[in-house]
Specification:
The structure holds 2 protein chains of 2 kinds. Helix content of chain A is 38%, strand content 15%. In chain A, helix 5 packs parallel to helix 12 and helix 12 crosses helix 14. Chain A has 14 helices and 15 strands. By secondary structure, chain B is an alpha/beta fold. Helix content of chain B is 37%, strand content 11%. Chain B has 17 helices and 15 strands. In chain B, a hairpin with a 2-residue loop joins strand 4 and strand 5. The two termini of chain B are 17 Å apart. Classes of the chains: A alpha/beta, B alpha/beta.
Chain lengths: 439, 487
């Protein structure tokens, strides 16, 4: 299957206009010794052949398991209107809106997305999205380093271990000091904070699903001259104390719960919001409202002097395109849920998880590990290695949760269980009965 | 147009939720103490589903995409995006798969379909580029650049090389110097000669401080650098690595491979070359490929095959740079690119490059009479013109030309880039625009050239056909309004 429209006559006409006899002459500038030595690619297939092949591969995935896996990525319901609207070709086949007059759709929807993220986080300004929650966290950390001109970053050890590994990868050559510690204890935080601390990175709910108020922590880091960075779950923000209310300078997070499929890890969406004083150090695209000569309201990319196409090696980041279509999905999701709906969704997630907690902790030998309150995820200690237990549960058609031993070697028996609004009472029952049977 | 927030009416609902499906006791939220609750609910829109659908449908009609018309935005490769790839990316077996599943015990077996997509795509990209191994992790082209530079740094650190400089030609995309700088390198610019990086100037800048060179070939002015083997040879003698920015791979598939030109690290923009939609600025995907001796530095996990033919994720690569993304890249985008490559096959991909180069040269020849071409020689898949003569004679700048093209129904070319050409207009027609569309573009461009002489004021006023005219960007930057104020 090919998608080129040219007929042999078209090609002949175009070559004739160039005074050439063959397309090969156009490539005469390629030195002979650099020509492809071999081109051993398969033959092209028709649309039904490719579709059938991929449907077969999709069938090899165990996507039908009842899913209690979370860890920052959740199996939420996606309203049909989200997909219907992001599937409009005017949105998804457009490029970065460099020509504002013919890109008002993308620009206004981004402006609305920025508004929604500001309202969720309580902060002053949001960018037009980043790649994912982990890269957003890294960008936030680098903002703190740029803004304070300091070198040390404190990271709580209950921040997603996946994001902590990413942060390490990105900063290894930058002569920064990355300190991971249990900073939930203010006394420990006091000991670690110093004149070289650029930022403190926390997460709410933390990786184990627990909601906290980090107001005191952010007050301490502010006192020490550093910035407070909070990783957030966007649905939890419907009910939880906001980053702004806690005194954070930067809020970041993974936008996947806002209408994006799990899709084996991407495309996802990094959101970021900051206080006004950090606006000009924020990476990525930003859309602003302005007017044309006739006074009509319109939108355009703004504050572009921070960006790589203008400042090149002096830019705030190297981010060029981002995840605009995912940001559109997020604002559609938030618009559909609305002010009340999002609160109800958050509460529904919490109550479903609370029910699961009750059912699981009623099982002999299953022990709840944290003092709540929790959002939609929690960890329990099992009497056996959690990896073994989960493996046995797979045979029952249930992905029972994430064994924490993978990232926390001292937690081999601990299981992280996530419950969304999609899990029915019956499914939670299967989980509890299944666990009881395999323990 | 009003925003969705301005259309909000208290009490309207756009989505239904299941009432708590669990015990009545849990239906009331009793667990969150007031000090952990936000003071007020977030002021999100309160709209019915139909309000929302109409609002964004109207917005979509104020947007221009490839599905709407010709989009010759240079260096962005705005080719047609086949529809069936969208459908396969939404197959529940792929879209519903939790990324942590393969991290469970024997979990790889639960994701064999998705792992196979990654594995087979890796093999195909290796063959297309002449590389030895690929990672799908990088989430965009610029993210691939950063990943590539991190691999470069890991290589030098491992060998005990002290390297602080990355060389970049003056015509490079801004992301190249930005990526190198963000990874901790000093960026040194190499001047061009006749549009391409000059090997003599390059060798003057080369030293034992140079970690690598970032180039694209063909480059951003649309020219193939015939000295590339000589440049690569000199770089390798200095133990500097050759980095290939894959932005322009669309021009040479089946003709030449970066690996055979001497490049060590390659990123590909799947959304450009392999026709996955750009989404208004993302998501893209920027897989990175490397030659054999750099494979040990690639991010983990790597998809590998066991003796029995099953695939698994291998995290055991001690020299790896670690994770650059949480999981296995923008899998949905990789899947679309995989479907695209399977559909086109080797011959189809080669035809893509032939037709892309043919179309760009056709435009070069057809526009030659009224437009100043920056480099008067055969180009690859894009061609750069300059409006400098029209600016000097008639006060008509590249931006005026761009805005006039909007009124003619076209998305304008890239303007003011590359920086090495004054008043640059970079056109990339791609292989998917039919000849009649190219002819219509030529006609519109030539009409604008005539108008520049006859009535330059008309061009300053453009566009007139759009919902808004030229926007006051200075106002937007001086007094940033970045969100809807709360009522």
């Amino acid at each position: 299957m090919r998608f080129t429209p040219h007929t042999p006559e078209d090609r002949a006409d175009m070559l004739a206009a160039l005074g050439l006899g063959s397309v090969g002459e156009l490539f005469a500038g390629l030195p002979e010794d650099l020509r492809c030595r071999q081109w051993d690619l398969p033959q092209g297939l028709s649309e039904p052949e490719v579709s059938q092949y991929l449907a077969k591969l999709a069938g090899l995935n165990a996507s039908g398991l009842v899913c209690f896996l979370g860890g920052g990525f959740y199996d939420h319901h996606i309203p049909a209107a989200v997909d219907a609207l992001i599937s409009r070709g005017e949105f998804y086949t457009a490029y970065t809106p460099y020509q504002a007059e013919m890109s008002q759709g993308t620009l206004q929807s981004i402006f609305e997305y920025q508004t929604a993220i500001c309202r969720l986080t309580g902060l002053d300004a949001a960018n037009a999205s980043l790649y994912d929650g982990g890269t957003a966290l890294y960008e936030a950390a680098m903002m703190a380093v740029r803004k304070t001109r300091r070198k040390k970053l404190l990271v709580a050890n209950n921040v997603s271990p996946i994001y902590r590994i990413m942060l390490k990868s990105y900063t290894v050559n930058l002569h920064l000091e990355l300190v991971e510690a249990d900073v939930s204890d203010p006394a420990e935080l006091e000991r670690l904070l110093d004149q070289d601390t650029a930022g403190l990175i926390l997460q709410n709910p933390d990786f184990f699903g627990v909601l906290r108020d980090y107001g005191q922590h952010f007050a301490m880091v502010r006192e020490a001259g550093g910035l407070g960075i909070l990783g957030c779950n966007p649905i939890a923000l419907a009910v939880a104390k906001t980053p702004a209310e806690m005194g954070a300078d930067i809020a970041v997070g993974e936008g996947q719960p806002l209408g994006l499929p799990l899709s084996f890890g991407g495309p996802y969406l990094g959101f970021m919001a900051v206080t006004n004083k950090l606006l000009r150090t924020m990476p990525g695209r930003i859309v602003g409202r302005t007017h044309d000569a006739q006074g009509r309201v319109g939108y355009c990319l703004t504050l572009q002097t921070r960006e790589q196409h203008i400042r090149r090696e002096k830019a705030t980041s190297n981010i060029c395109s981002n995840e605009a279509l995912c940001a559109l999905a997020a604002v559609l999701f938030l618009g559909l849920m609305g002010k009340q709906g999002l609160v109800e969704l958050a509460e529904l997630n919490m109550t479903q998880a609370a029910y699961a907690r009750e059912r699981l902790t009623a099982i002999d030998g299953v022990q709840l590990l944290d003092e709540g309150p929790w959002f939609n995820e929690f960890r329990v200690r099992l009497p056996l290695d959690a990896r073994m237990v989960v493996s046995r549960m797979i045979d029952k058609g249930i992905a029972a949760g994430f064994p924490l031993g993978r990232y926390y070697p001292d937690q081999a028996n601990n299981l992280l269980v996530a419950v969304t609004e999609k899990r029915s009472k019956e499914e939670i029952g299967y989980l509890a009965e299944g666990l009881e049977a395999v323990l | 147009m009003k925003t969705i927030f301005e259309k909000s009416r208290p009490g309207r609902r756009g989505a239904s939720l299941p009432c708590s499906r669990v015990d009545e006791r849990f239906c009331r939220l009793t667990e969150l103490p007031p000090e952990l609750r936000r003071a007020q609910p977030a002021e999100l829109p309160e709209v019915a589903e139909i309000d929302l659908v109409r609002h964004y449908t109207q917005l979509s009609r104020m947007n221009f995409g490839v599905d709407v018309g010709t989009y010759p935005l240079g260096s962005c490769t705005m080719k047609y995006n086949p529809k069936f790839t969208e459908v396969v990316s939404r197959l529940p077996g792929f879209a519903g798969l939790h990324p942590l599943l393969p991290q469970l015990r024997r979990g790889g077996l639960l994701a064999q379909g998705s792992l196979r997509v990654i594995h087979e795509l890796e093999q195909l990209l290796n063959r297309i580029t002449g590389m030895h191994a690929f990672t799908m992790q990088p989430l965009a082209g610029a993210h691939g650049e950063l990943t590539g530079i991190m691999i470069m740094a890991a290589y030098h650190n491992d060998k005990g090389n002290q390297r602080s400089v990355v060389l970049v030609p003056d015509s490079a995309h801004g992301t190249n110097p930005a990526s190198a700088a963000i990874a901790g390198y000093e960026v040194v610019t190499v001047p061009s000669k006749g549009g391409v990086m000059d090997p003599t100037a390059f060798k003057e800048k080369l030293s034992d401080q140079v970690a690598g060179v970032m180039m694209t070939n063909p480059n951003t002015v649309g020219l193939f650098n015939p000295h590339i083997a000589e440049i690569a040879e000199a770089a390798h003698r200095a133990d500097a690595l050759m980095y290939y920015d894959g932005a322009n791979l669309n021009a040479i598939m089946g003709m030449a491979k970066p690996g055979e030109m001497g490049f060590d690290i390659v990123h590909l923009n799947l959304h450009k070359t392999f026709g996955t939609p750009h989404g208004g600025g993302g998501p893209g995907a920027g897989p990175v490929g490397v030659v054999e001796h750099l494979a040990e530095y690639l991010p983990i996990s790597r998809v590998e095959m066991r003796a029995d033919g099953t695939l698994f994720l291998n995290y055991d690569h001690p020299k790896s740079i670690g994770y650059v993304a949480p999981f296995y890249g923008n899998f949905g985008v990789c899947l679309k690119a995989f479907a695209y490559i399977l559909a086109l096959g080797g011959e189809g991909l080669k035809e893509v490059s032939e037709d892309a180069v043919l179309a760009a040269n056709y435009l070069r020849a057809q526009l030659d009479a009224k437009w100043q071409v920056a480099f008067d020689k055969t180009c690859m898949h894009e061609v750069v013109f300059s409006a400098a003569d029209k600016a000097a004679e008639h006060g008509v700048s590249a931006v005026d030309v761009a805005k006039a093209l909007i009124d003619a129904g076209f998305h304008p070319p890239t303007i003011y880039f590359p920086l090495t050409v004054k008043e640059a207009l970079m056109i990339e027609p791609t292989e998917t625009e039919a000849k009649e569309n190219l002819d219509a573009l030529v006609q519109a461009m030539n009409r604008i050239a005539d108008l520049a002489a006859e009535d330059p004021e008309a061009l300053h006023a453009a566009p007139l056909s759009t919902p808004v005219g030229r926007l006051d960007e200075v106002e937007a930057a001086r007094h940033p309004v970045l969100k809807e104020p709360e009522a």
